[in-house]
Specification:
312 residues, alpha+beta, 6-stranded mixed barrel, 8 helices, 23% helix
Length: 312
């Protein structure tokens, strides 16, 4: 993915503090609710480390425009507006405008995962628990079983003096773009006020935040490939991106012992046009996803509470 590519960023409806959403953080399943979902928050990088590991752009007069992956744009926005996707598919259209901000994107997500994230014991432990539970008989024999989705946070928009704007309209099918004149008119609308566009459509000023907050994030999928070990170990595994799983304590017959299976992680660039992502976005609120997440969460809870000697 090119450094200047913004199509894989997701715009949030509410900004989060920079120490809560950090480069290298991991989110299980729900990247659109990164602090509600099970997650690992990576320590914030120092300025020196940030310059070493990330491309950084300092921005002024920032305008982020997000549209749902389910509501493609049929119009053209002003040239200085950055077009992003929306994290939550129930949102139709949002904007965040700010006086200044910073855009940071990891230079090499895979290298950062190996050298900075997986070298952290807390990150290793959380990831191992999630993946061990996801591979347990209790989850794998569930009718909606699949490989778990773990997301690596690889890019951020951190903005200051920001105003969040929400689109209100009768039709949620398409986005018609945002003109410079609309942006200009919105600058004088107070918090809680709105700008009518006619035909029941309007932009509402929903939030104002003076201090630095993260308003958009980019993720890569950590695709998990589970590999059974034989007597001689695991063949063909890229060791820096692999780890052994805990014993399956949820199996009646204790089918998997500790180290009997390894998971290899692939840092995957999921593009907006990929059928996999489209299906995922459409299913954000599905009963199937809720049932799978409930099953997985129950399994993780059991693994978390189990005595260490039972897992090894």
């Amino acid at each position: 993915m090119a450094y200047g590519d913004d199509t894989s960023f997701y715009l949030y409806g509410v900004g989060e503090k920079p120490e809560a959403l950090t480069l290298g953080s991991l989110v299980l399943e729900r990247y659109w609710q990164p602090l509600i979902a099970r997650h690992y928050t990576h320590p914030m990088l120092s300025l020196t480390a940030l310059q070493e590991h990330a491309h950084i752009s300092n921005l002024t007069d920032v305008k982020l425009h997000g549209t749902s992956r389910l509501a493609p744009s049929v119009g053209v926005s002003a040239v200085d507006i950055v077009e992003l996707g929306l994290a939550w598919n129930k949102d139709v259209e949002r904007m965040v405008v700010a006086k200044k901000g910073t855009r940071a994107v990891l230079k090499d997500p895979e290298e950062f995962l190996v050298t900075s994230v997986l070298s952290n014991p807390r990150a290793q432990e959380k990831l191992k628990l999630w993946l061990s539970a996801a591979r347990s008989d209790y989850v794998m024999k569930f009718k909606f079983a699949r490989r778990p989705k773990v997301w690596l946070l690889t890019g951020l928009y951190i903005l200051e003096d920001a105003r969040a704007l929400a689109f209100r309209g009768q039709s949620a099918e398409v986005s018609t773009g945002v003109s410079a004149s609309v942006i200009g008119a919105l600058s004088s609308v107070p918090l809680g006020g709105s700008l009518s566009l006619g035909n029941g459509r309007s932009w509402e000023v929903s939030m104002e935040v003076a201090e630095q907050h993260v308003w958009a994030a980019q993720y890569r999928l950590l695709d998990a490939h589970f590999i059974k070990a034989d007597r001689d170990g695991v063949d063909g595994v890229n060791l820096p991106l692999s780890m052994g799983l805990y014993r399956d304590i949820l199996s009646v017959n204790t089918v998997r012992g500790a180290g009997d299976e390894t998971v290899e992680l692939e840092v995957k660039d999921v593009r907006p046009e990929d059928p996999e992502l489209k299906e995922w976005v459409e299913g954000q609120d599905s009963e199937e996803l809720k049932a799978y997440e409930k099953r997985l969460d129950d399994a993780i809870t059991v693994f978390e509470k189990a005595p260490a000697h039972l897992l090894r």
